[in-house]
């Protein structure tokens, strides 16, 4: 069973984004492979160009995709197919868009997948408990005799 909430970021990306906390670090299940990602031979045309762009972006981020070539190739092929459908002014099936969004989240290509959890104030989560609510000066008091007027 998986953990609830957003998927975790690899430690390398956390270091780059400045959100790395060694206390909260979880060990990888699969080791990072050395070397460069090799493009599958069946990937052609627009999908191959997307592959090159994505691999360059991931390398710039410090994100290793070695060992994930098959998933990345499917992601690039799906994106190329969606682009062709949009160019032909066809509406792609929802299932294709859903699959594309899943791949984009897996490879941290969406804004939401690149954001960590919000920072908690240093005083603690329950620091405001037991404190009186702040006073508001915009509420005017009405005397009991004025209510019927």
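Q: What amino acid sequence fits the structure above?
A:
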């Amino acid at each position: 069973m998986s953990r609830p909430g957003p998927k975790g970021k690899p430690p390398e990306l956390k270091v780059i984004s400045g959100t790395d906390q060694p206390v909260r670090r979880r060990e990888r299940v699969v080791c990072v492979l050395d070397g460069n990602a090799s493009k599958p031979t069946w990937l052609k045309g627009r999908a191959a160009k997307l592959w090159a762009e994505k691999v360059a972006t991931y390398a710039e981020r410090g994100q290793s995709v070695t060992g994930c070539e098959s998933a990345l190739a499917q992601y690039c092929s799906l994106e190329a197919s969606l682009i062709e459908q949009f160019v032909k002014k066809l509406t792609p099936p929802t299932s294709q868009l859903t699959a594309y969004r899943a791949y984009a989240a897996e490879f941290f290509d969406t804004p939401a997948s690149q954001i960590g959890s919000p920072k908690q104030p240093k005083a603690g989560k329950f620091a405001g408990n037991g404190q009186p609510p702040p006073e508001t000066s915009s509420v005017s008091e009405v005397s009991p005799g004025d209510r019927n007027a």
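Q: And what stands out in the fold?
A: Residues 69-87 form the longest helix (19 residues).
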